[in-house]
Amino acid sequence: MKVKHLESALSSLQREFPNPNVALEQYPTSAHLAARVIAFAAENGDLGRGMSCLDLGCGTGMLTCAAAFLCDVVIAVDCDIEALRVAQENACSIELDDTTNFIQAMVRIGSNSRVAKKGASKRKGTGRGRGQRPPQRNTKEILIEGLSDGIPMKDNCVDTVISNPPFGTKMNEGIDAQFLRSATRLARKAVYSFHKTSTRPFLSKLVAEWGYKLEVAAEMKFDIPQSYKFHKQATKDVKVDLLRVVI
Amino acid sequence: MRNNTKEADGKGFPLRITAVEVRVVDNPDATNVGQREIDFVKNMLPVLDWPALVQAASQLGIPTLPPQLTEQLAQDPAFLQALYHILMNVHLVKGMLTCPASGREFPVTDGIVNMMLEEEECERVRV
């Protein structure tokens, strides 16, 4: 399927989140970008007929729907039920709801679990001395051991994982690396994931420690629009890498 | 919520399905299931946990799968076509998935399954 056709089909979908949640860094992936990433993955033989795909942190389902045009099975995972519903409607509107499956689950449970609930107020402090939770394991340890994410699926259960994860800018530091860890354990063939360019050295080391090969497939700027009232500028340009991890 | 359950919950696989509402996509036109679909099913066979699939299909109102997947069946196009229909066209719209080991329930509403876990449960999720 031609990229332009794919992009055109995706552009009719609802991209916007109904009530964007600040803490979850919810913003939509553009039709243009979704089409390009999926087409690129297909060129590499990582997506296509007879294959399965998982969209980790699917949001309103742009990547999910793009993948559903090409794959036989797409599993879309997100912690926000409202976003999932929009994603499901999007899949229905292009009649791809038979190949898409929606699961509400959370990549990182624990210190971040409260922020997924609507209306959660900003936490004060990060748990030092609060004494109510068991001591948090060092994030890096968790990431290297690869234990304990909240996705109830087996390792290597899908061919390819695609993800546009939160970047860890909203009191959820390390969430981007956690997403990448979950993605790499769930995939059999490859992972395509967006990450801030500034994290590239750190993630390269991590991926190497996990035993996989990492490529920077593309560099781009994300134009994150003013979704939230407190944004001072109209849009913010963030330098972003599209990483491809070969499992 | 597709029939082909890949989810695992620690030692609790497969999840038991309590179906309240199932949607079956009508596929009266057998020519819809062509070679591509048959090839897809063939590729899936090594990955499928057959007893789990038989149980899941039965819990979704389709008790007709044979208890064993024989080599003969695996080569039979008619069987593969029927299997494709079961794998891809049967959707759980409303119901419950229950872990046989812990009893933990995951509700399914409007085709979306809620698998949000608490912190203590995470360690057991790993397979």
TrEMBL record, chain A:
Gene3D superfamilies in the record: Vaccinia Virus protein VP39
InterPro entries: DNA_methylase_N6_adenine_CS, rRNA_MeTrfase/Polyamine_Synth, SAM-dependent_MTases_sf
Gene Ontology molecular function: nucleic acid binding; rRNA (adenine-N6-)-methyltransferase activity
UniProt region (Disordered), positions on chain: 114-138
UniProt-listed CDD domains: AdoMet_MTases
Record SUPFAM superfamilies: S-adenosyl-L-methionine-dependent methyltransferases
Residue spans of biased composition, Basic residues class: 115-131
Signal peptide residue numbers: none
Protein name as annotated: Methyltransferase small domain-containing protein
Upper lineage: Eukaryota, Sar, Stramenopiles, Ochrophyta, Bacillariophyta
UniProtKB/TrEMBL annotation, chain B:
SUPFAM superfamilies: Trm112p-like
Gene Ontology biological process terms in this record: rRNA (guanine-N7)-methylation; tRNA methylation
Alphabetized GO MF terms: protein heterodimerization activity
InterPro entries: Trm112 (IPR039127)
Domain of life the protein comes from: Eukaryota
Record Gene3D superfamilies: 2.20.25.10
Annotated protein name in UniProt: Multifunctional methyltransferase subunit TRM112-like protein
Organism, scientific name: Cylindrotheca closterium
Lineage of source species: Eukaryota, Sar, Stramenopiles, Ochrophyta, Bacillariophyta
